[in-house]
Design brief:
By secondary structure, this protein is an alpha/beta fold. The protein has 14 helices and 18 strands. Helices cover about 35% and strands about 25% of the residues. α1 packs parallel to α10. Keywords: Monooxygenase, Oxidoreductase, Signal.
């Protein structure tokens, strides 16, 4: 970056992309963020930060106090039977880490911190990537073609950049036997509760929390951009379920927002190809594994730091060498069987585990390490 500012295109305005944009802009890079959605996407599930490294990253970004102000509280969730009687408790400290916030709130905070130093282009998407000797020539659905020094795919598990540069999604994304859904709908109960039947989970209630569904299923075909189709998948999957599930399903049609997706894992031999690199879920998603958001923030800091002090090839090698061990260690985690066990025996065993504080504490500490919560952050002159 001694001759001219590094020009970087980031695909994705969720969490990983704006986090990277924040650090790159501070290092002097010229940053453009392109996002397929027409506006910043709000709502979504709660995400959490675990360990001193995550909190220090938020502090260095200047957003720690704002994230704390918007925290969800990480409330305990009561596991109930079909009559509404308490069976066990999913502790808030186990699911919420040290600090929990809605994904949409975090995305908004990051956007607010970067919109004046980076260029955002909403309602647009990359259509082709052609690498040349001096950069990556990029065409868009609506914007004019441009050439960038580096392109970063931070566009989630269904990454467009990964598809264009690394090949079709089925080559890299593996369905892990369950689906999950978040639905912004009218509340049914005031306090957070979760109810299971074999292969199915409904969790509702709690401050600011959308309804959460999880169910076992082979891979499904549906339009990910059609709310009506997603609602129909949920209605079919949870038909006949006990407790107050019929009442909850009756509210689906009036739901403001729905997000249904597979619990899946992304596996790649490399995170980069030439001048194109992947970040966050696009590189190494392990859906609902509890480590994605925190590790994405660590990875963004590492990638920006390496790009600020070396050419792209060297920077990508160092970035991968640092982050790959975390991704490999977290790869075996699968939240589906824990949230929605396929048998009544499995549900009983899960509920017994929830009563073992020492085991839960050990699991939480492992998740903290996998998410980079104890990673030693290098210092950068930003």
């Amino acid at each position: 970056m001694t001759n001219k500012p590094l020009s970087v295109l980031i695909s994705g305005a969720g969490v990983a992309g704006p986090a990277l944009a924040c650090w790159l802009a501070r290092s002097g890079a010229t940053v453009t963020v392109v996002e397929k959605a027409p506006v910043l996407r709000t709502g979504g599930q709660a995400v959490d930060f675990k360990g001193g490294t995550h909190l220090e990253l938020l502090r260095r970004m200047g957003i720690l106090e704002e994230v704390r102000r918007r925290r969800t509280g990480g409330a305990d969730q009561t596991v109930i039977d079909s009559d509404g009687r308490r069976i066990a408790v999913m502790p808030g400290w186990f699911t919420g880490g040290d600090l929990e916030v809605l994904r949409g709130d975090l995305a908004e905070i990051l956007y607010e911190r970067t919109r004046d130093t980076c260029r955002y282009s909403f309602g647009d998407s990359i259509t082709s990537l052609t690498e040349t000797a001096s950069g990556v020539h990029v065409t868009f659905e609506s914007g004019a073609p441009r050439t960038f020094d580096v392109v970063v795919g931070a566009d989630g598990i269904h990454s467009n950049v990964r598809r264009l540069a690394f090949g079709p999604e089925p080559d890299h994304v593996t369905h892990r036997g369950h689906y999950y859904a978040l639905v912004d709908m009218e509340p049914v109960v005031d306090e957070p509760v979760m109810y299971n039947e074999p292969g199915r989970l409904v969790a509702v209630g709690g401050p600011k929390a959308p309804a959460f569904f999880c169910f076992a299923s082979p891979e499904l075909t549906y339009d990910r951009y059609s709310a009506a189709e997603q609602k129909q998948v949920l209605a079919d999957a949870f038909r006949g379920m006990g407790w107050r599930t019929p009442e909850i399903l009756a509210k689906l049609d009036r739901a403001k927002d729905v997000h249904l997706d597979s619990i899946a894992r992304v596996a790649l031999e490399r995170f980069s190809k030439g001048r194109i690199v992947l970040l966050g879920d696009a590189a190494a998603a392990n859906t609902l594994g509890g480590v994605g958001t925190g590790l994405a923030l660590v990875a963004a800091y590492v990638l920006a730091g390496e790009l600020s002090r070396a050419d792209h090839a060297t920077a990508f090698e160092r970035y991968e060498a640092t982050i790959r061990p975390f991704v490999k260690a977290a790869g075996g985690n699968n939240a589906g069987p824990f949230l929605a066990p396929r048998t009544r025996g499995g549900i009983w065993l899960r509920n017994q585990l929830l009563k073992r504080r020492l085991l839960l504490s050990s699991m939480a500490k492992t998740g903290e390490k996998l998410a980079g919560g104890h990673f030693e952050l290098p210092d950068h002159a930003w």
